[in-house]
Design goal:
44% helix; globular; five-stranded parallel beta sheet
């Protein structure tokens, strides 16, 4: 019965007295309880070509198959929409990461296991992102791969263009990448397969009681 | 078995050949199928004090109690985070609505019934928002209440301040509100209770087969 919900009864009373109320909203805890798992962001940082998108998709598939509510935020669905009005200047990249962190926070609030996959080259920006989350809600994963290997892979031909001077501010070539100081997890994608990397991530999440196998 | 997933097998093959792949991602359709309901945005537009937040919360509570995956986007969780760097100039209000529409689109892509509650006073901005969604995914709800009644309610004391000249660009006082041309639903909050308004919304969603009672 809908009317049993204490919030609605109060809503009607407050409506009658013309007050506003916002705290009856379905909370993060209610969502987590119903979903049967915690919500948090897995923040993948690393060079272009290091394997962020690949691991993001493989991790999501694994978690979705386990019955979890998941979503991937990455360049594909963010740069073409929310951040379509941002370029690649230092200021715009900072704003790019700021917005992504805020959207990640909304998804975590919605009870979703959120996988955010962005180069996010600057430590200060990642620290600011982390500060928007509660204890244990921000899991920084360094997708570590030597730039030489990334250049060899060069899946989008971007390194070639950057070296030819056709792309400015390209991380690892003519823009800095600051290695994470103290990430929760580091994955060497030149040494382990995608599947092994996902195994490591899932084991971490299980160890901390954030997820479970159904 | 995780390894049965066709995407992962392909992922490993493509990883070996250093290709990128993005299309194996868990899709909107997969999420909808598992959630057991469609995903769409219920876009609430109307004057300050018309009852948008009240109806958003009450609608979400009703749908959550029915077992649906839901989330509310509104001034509370957006203006303090994602859009904290925006003011109330015409340009900033336009960007505010643009970002909210894009984030709503991500939530709909994630399979969530998204309730977006923003004054969104300009028809052009709402039309642009609608254009970001597929057929039937954008349900515009005009929270209609005479400005005199909103001023009487004035839950945050904002009308008083606007009339005193302390707030510039306040919709309905010194900034325009353009009534929706052809909203899916209009709710007169001065004539119906919150519960009756939610009944109307839920009936609409059921009629169109977007949700169902469990």
């Amino acid at each position: 019965m809908i009317n049993e919900h204490p919030g609605l009864e109060r809503a009607r009373e407050e409506e009658a007295s013309n007050l506003t109320w916002h705290d009856m909203r379905v909370t993060k805890e209610l969502r987590r309880n119903r979903n049967g798992h915690s919500s948090f962001v897995v923040w993948l940082t690393g060079l272009s070509g290091a394997g962020k998108s690949t691991i993001a998709s493989a991790l999501e598939t694994r978690l979705f198959d386990m019955g979890l509510m998941t979503y991937v935020l990455d360049g594909d669905n963010v740069r073409m929409g929310l951040n379509a009005n941002l370029g690649f200047s230092e200021e715009d990249r900072q704003e790019n990461i700021r917005r992504v962190a805020e959207v990640s926070r909304l998804f975590v609030d919605a009870g979703i296991v959120t996988i955010s996959s962005f180069i996010s080259p600057l430590d200060a920006d990642r620290v600011k992102a982390r500060e928007r989350f509660g204890e244990g809600e921000f899991i920084e994963v360094f997708i570590d791969c030597p730039v030489e290997e990334c250049m060899k892979r060069d899946p989008k031909g971007l390194y070639q263009k950057a070296i030819a001077g056709e792309i400015k501010n390209f991380t690892g070539i003519n823009a800095p990448y600051e290695r994470p100081q103290d990430p929760e997890i580091t994955l060497r994608t030149d040494q382990y397969t995608v599947d092994e990397c996902v195994d490591t991530l899932v084991a971490y999440l299980k160890d901390r009681g954030l997820i479970f196998a159904r």
